[in-house]
Amino acid sequence: MNAFRRHTGTFALVFPLTLFLGVFFIWPLLTVLQQAVSDPVVSKNLPRTTAAVSAWNITSEPSDEMRTALVDDLKSLDDDQKLGEVVRRLNSAQPGFRTLMRKTVAAVRDSTGPISLAEIDARWNDVAFWRAIAEATEPYTDRNLLAAVDLQHDASGAIVAMPAGESANQAILLRTFAVAAVVTLATCLIGLPYAMLAAALSGWRRQLLLAAVLLPLWTSLLVRTAAWYILLQDKGLINSLLVSLGLLDSPLPLLFNRTGVVIAMTHVLLPFMVLPIYSVLIAIPRNLMPAAASLGASPIRAFLHILLPLALRGIASGGLLVFMAALGYYITPALIGGPKDQMISSVIAFYATGSANWGMAGALGMVLLAVTIVLYGVYGRLSMKTTGA
Amino acid sequence: MTIRLLKFLFGAATVIFLLAPLLAILPIAFTSSSFLAYPIPSFSDRWFAELATEDAWRRSIVNSLLIGAGTTLLSTVLGILAALALRRRVVFAAALRTIFLLPMVVPAVVLGVGLQILFAGLGFPNTFAAVIVAHTVVAVPFVLVSITASLEGIDYRTERAAASLGASPAKVFWKVTLPLAMPGVLSGAVLAFATSLDEVVLTLFVAGPNQLTLARQMFSSIRENISPAIVAAAFLFIVGTIFLGGLLAVVHRRAARSAAPA
Fold first, then answer.
1. CATH code assigned to A169-388
2. H or E element: which one contains A159?
3. Which GO terms describe its biological process (chain A) (predicted)?
4. Considering the entire predicted model, what is its pTM?
């Protein structure tokens, strides 16, 4: 009896948070994924055509039912906004649909009797247009996911690269990875020696070094970004100092470019590198380095063969943490960077709030989410081993 | 000798890199000029006055406090319950823990897009409830970690002793477990409040014009018309951080003292 009550009790305790995160965390993420692959515009607004086209084999002459169904659908679709969505969707699959539909809709709306599509425009005899409709009536699509990495289907359905200049997602993804990698490297180059220094010191010196890491970590991200915004300006503290010291004639451009983004992100993420390395280093027995030295190893050799391998797990944890966080950054590039420094998060935000293109926002979000979760999995295994050891 | 000097220089340079941005901007909060630059012509409290009087700033501060309070309450209650459950042997404990901590790493923009669509579908977009719920999702992991850690420090025998003396499970929780876990609960609550105060990206997606928070207002002012009012707001943030940090230190010191054998 007790075991049963304990189990129901535990369930009652864990249920609220599970439900809460299920509804407000897992569900939204699934919604994003669904947006990425769903393509309901045509099937929702042209229901009869969708039904008629589903029986068609894509290669033969379009049937009369299909033509009648399309005319009927166009007659009953009197919402111009929805019609616009349908036309946009079809035109993206088959250029020429915009003019064809404008002409057809005008004719359908004017006439009262039966209409022959072929008489309105000869293009309605072209199988390519009907094939575009047939593909667009599929409720699910890999179009957005392919477009997220600059790929598309060609006329025969094979996956090919998009024409150059049409989409820049690959470039933005590469840029995001590059910025994240540079920031990870920079935090490592500063963070590793800093953590070593803090671990080697003792007393108030160590406390000071640790406080210097923890204080920014505690300070609002926005405050830190605002601080860099102010420092990096042409008339900001850094440039004024350099000019007044006579090191520069004119201010260095530090704001609204890559340099500024990297500096500010390095500052923001440095604590996430220092703390894991530090926690590994203080666990290393302090007599290892003197022992190596007494056996004749030079400091560099002792560092490379003793300290670095032992610290590697901390470096890997810190590196993953920083890289993962940097990939999803939005605020710092949005405020400090120029248009050429926007990372994938900014593009997702643009598609979602700027142009209401939920499909593309979802597809890019899916790419970002997948990479982050894989990295988190690696990080989880790594930290499990560390605590298990 | 040179190595020691190099170490000192490196350490000093990095400490300056870490702390200087925060210290360098603070005096600008008290400038009398409308420019965010040195030298400061003279000191004045005009920008703090602007925060208190100008409608957009004043309302955003009130909104931040309201949303922060709601987030703290909701995430602390959810966090306590889940932490109590994870302390027992639960099936799928590892999986549950992973899911509970996942909001810390999921990119905020992706979650923001999903929440915006979800709230629109559920029929409460642009409401205080939506913003509080969104903030709670990202605050809950911090609360959970903090409370779990403090529960781990409790000796089971204390609770068993209370139960053997006839206390009901509820009474054991209120009179024994909760008071012993209080330091963790309080630091979790403080972390939740701080997370909510600082959250921008989710707010950007789920808040309407009536729920603009201080962080959100700072974000758009930096983009549009950067004025020393932002630094005054940042000053408030930093003072608030130091206050909350001090509060936590006091709580932990007290807990440590009462836990120490007399």
1. 1.10.3720.10
2. strand A159-161
3. transmembrane transport
4. 0.86
